[in-house]
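Researcher: We plan to redesign the surface later, but first we want a full-length starting point. Tokens attached.
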């Protein structure tokens, strides 16, 4: 009986020893795995680039929408019904071509009636001029013959004799004449012509609609000459001047356009602390309202290296790679900071820096450099 108890105790002790051994082995394995994972994390493979200082042209990023350089809003100075069937949005016109024609039948009849009165007045004074001023009669006969109901009035004959001037004035010839000329000017306003070759960008009325004097009826643009209006910070403005070359591009179209800075607004926008810069570009493939980005060639910066702005840690630091293995933070002298790139001056040639954005890195971390990118 005693022998059986001893055997049981030995078996239990053996099982306990085996269990403890297994637990210790598991702990050692887990600890070794954690150490291995930690070592693997610290030896992260990264991309690096090497500093090569050189003189570089400063490239300043701008963006904005295109507006037509030549654009006019069309207003009617007279009342009447719009007669033009071609007054449609997108319709193209050559310079001098009729954009819109407004019904002028009532005013035209009035002008003809007044011309009839003038013709009668001149007819009545011709016999007196022939008697009292025989040297002037030929000019006035020619003037009388030139009055046409469907054409503009001819020029009045020159009058050098004061007595003749008083005589003609007393017969209301002058007042009738200039009243008709004023009506002819108003009559001409019923026809609106294109001031330059272009197209109607918008129309506010349709054919057959009654137009009121002073009413806006549409807008007209020159479709191949545009301006890009962009806001520039005061820091960037010191590198830009009128005449600078600009390269424009569109996210929708795989194409670039050449332009130049036309003018710079002298007024500062108090809400954005920026200044408006206007870039001119001429191309028939562009459209008003199109959003473009522009790169302005600024001044030349001496002995600098361009580094992606995304590599900044804080405001003025980036990660350098010492001995191709250890990350260290370095304070840099940023000469200019653009939207995507910054230009740095205090790094020595051959210095390697981390050339990718990794959120988990820290100073003193051990890394493996995959490659060196310029």
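Model: Full-length starting sequence:
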């Amino acid at each position: 009986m005693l022998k059986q108890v001893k055997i049981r105790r030995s078996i239990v002790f053996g099982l306990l020893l085996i269990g403890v051994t297994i637990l210790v082995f598991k702990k050692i394995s887990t600890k070794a795995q954690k150490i291995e994972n930690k070592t693997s994390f610290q030896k992260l493979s990264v991309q690096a680039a090497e500093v090569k200082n050189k003189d570089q042209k400063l490239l300043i990023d701008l963006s904005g929408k295109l507006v037509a350089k030549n654009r006019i809003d069309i207003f009617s100075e007279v009342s009447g019904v719009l007669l033009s069937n071609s007054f449609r949005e997108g319709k193209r016109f050559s310079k001098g071509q009729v954009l819109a024609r407004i019904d002028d039948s009532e005013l035209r009849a009035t002008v003809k009636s007044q011309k009839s009165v003038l013709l009668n007045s001149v007819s009545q004074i011709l016999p007196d001029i022939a008697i009292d001023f025989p040297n002037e009669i030929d000019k006035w006969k020619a003037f009388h013959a030139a009055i046409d109901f469907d054409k503009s009035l001819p020029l009045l004959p020159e009058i050098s004799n004061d007595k003749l001037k008083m005589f003609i004035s007393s017969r209301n010839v002058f007042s009738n004449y200039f009243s008709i000329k004023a009506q002819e000017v108003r009559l001409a306003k019923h026809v609106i012509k294109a001031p330059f070759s272009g197209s109607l960008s918008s129309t506010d009325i349709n054919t057959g609609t009654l137009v009121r004097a002073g009413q806006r009826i549409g807008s007209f643009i020159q479709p191949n000459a545009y301006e890009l209006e962009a806001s520039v910070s005061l820091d960037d403005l010191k590198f830009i001047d009128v005449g600078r070359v600009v390269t424009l591009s569109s996210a929708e179209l795989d194409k670039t356009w050449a332009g130049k800075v036309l003018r710079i607004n002298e007024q500062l926008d108090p809400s954005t602390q920026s200044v408006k810069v206007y870039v001119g570009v001429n191309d028939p493939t562009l459209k008003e309202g199109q959003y473009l980005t522009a790169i302005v060639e600024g001044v030349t910066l001496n002995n600098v290296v361009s580094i992606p702005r995304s590599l900044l840690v804080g405001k003025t630091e980036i990660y350098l790679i010492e001995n191709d293995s250890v990350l260290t933070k370095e304070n840099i002298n940023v000469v200019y900071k653009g939207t995507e790139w910054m230009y740095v001056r205090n790094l020595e040639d051959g210095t390697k820096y981390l050339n990718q954005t990794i959120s988990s890195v820290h100073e003193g971390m051990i890394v493996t450099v995959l490659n060196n990118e310029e």
